[in-house]
Amino acid sequence: MGKRIAKLTVDPDTNAASTTILGWEAMLQEIQSVTTWYTPKLGDDMKRTFVPMPQIIAKTVLAQILDKLPKLDMIVGTPFFDKNGNLVATPGYHKESATYYAPAYGLNVTLPPERPTQDDVAAALSTAMEPFIDFPFDGPSSKAHTLAMLLQPLVRNMIDGRCPAYLITKPRPDTGAGYLAESIHAIAFGGSYPTSSVKNSDEEWDKFLLAKLRSSAPMIVIDNVPISYELKASSLAKYMTDDAYSGRILGKSDDAEIAVRNMRLSAVSSG
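RE: above sequence
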């Protein structure tokens, strides 16, 4: 139920990758763009009558190739570890983790030594936390959770099952909760910052979450959550706590079930 064919597109200007789910209508357009369909006129094989591609062809192609295409769970913009702890730093599709790595142009990553020393670890920790030095954390615990947020996407494939959702709180406006989430995304995934506001109904949450998951978004951020807002929608609770999310595809009669492997984060407004 969760299998869908997607077209992966890489932006030639930024090298950012994205996916578009292909139904039979989209598949028909894809095939028509590289093929020509016609019927010969009776009695004269040299003359042809060009015709639209039959819809059944697109539907048949979708059904026949569904299980033959490589699986894609996530798109990332920075190196990551596969489930066996191997560092993946080569751009492109990585079959073992079903992940597509599309680094931004100009991104140069220095690989760590295979056997790091204590000094190497200390230097890495200092480098990892340097972007957050000006954030007003309320203590060591908040810094530790920030480090966990930063590391989780890099080691997600090594973790079976679900990971916790993160909640950023702030004592007053303009203390950087949104900037903290933006920094985590920029470092861990690269690319633009996909934030969203709270929804007014369970139906809106369901549509939003399913669309995000179907697009292979590596991180979903709900920003500026009012301090009085109750995150009680059943669809949101399912997304926050389950290993997979299922729902009705917008504008279609089909359902989809997608594994929840991305990062879940909310930033609470103090007002």
